[in-house]
Amino acid sequence: MTQHTQDTTAAYMERARALTSMKRRAVDEIIKSRGGTQMTHVAVQRKAATILGQLAASINVRAGDARHLVKMYERFEEFEMRAELESLFGIADLQLLAIETDEAVKAAIQMKRADMNLTGAAITTRLRNQPPRSREIRKNK
Questions:
Q1: d(Cα 94, Cα 86) in Å, to the nearest integer?
Q2: Using one digit for the tens of pLDDT, what is the confidence trace for 17-55?
């Protein structure tokens, strides 16, 4: 994704949306095809990833970058605070946050609001150092 460093987070998310749509169409076509009925879920996903890589190359996006964008978009596609998330964080930070729970992402948004100079890496470090929520609940009971 380094080749598009001037792009905004919104532009990346639009590119991610388009790539996700391409991947979903590829999965649908693979499943509809005769081979799709005989393939495992993993095999279908792998074949779709290969097709996605080829489609991504046609729009000057590396296959690995396309996979990351799709994973990130699938993670935040229906997230209730997506607009705010996109306005506060860059694409690299969103990729770091994509593996976090909704609760952790909401905490990251609060941290970023409190200090706009915080990087995604600093926020993830802070999130890692917070005690797990379930332990807090057990202690309070």
A1: 8
A2: 999 999 999 999 988 886 656 788 898 889 999 999 999
Q: In angstroms, how far apart are the furthest CA atoms of the chain? A: 56
HEC states along the chain?
CHHHCCCCHHHHHHHHHHHHHHHHHHHHHHHHCHHHHCCCHHHHHHHHHHHHHHHHHHCCCCHHHHHHHHHHHHHHCCCCCHHHHHHHCCHHHHHHHCCCCHHHHHHHHHHHHHCCCCCHHHHHHHHHHCCCHHHHHHHHC
Which of these, 88, 49, 43, 83, lies nearest to 69 by C-alpha position?
49
**Are 52 and 26 a contacting pair, CB within 8 Å?**
yes
pLDDT tens digits, 72-105:
999 999 999 999 999 999 988 999 999 999 999 9
Residue type (1 letter), 82: R
**In the chain, domain spans:** 1-77, 80-141
* CA separation for the pair 30, 52 (Å, rounded): 12
Burial of 48 (0-12, 13-18, 19+ CB in 10 A): buried
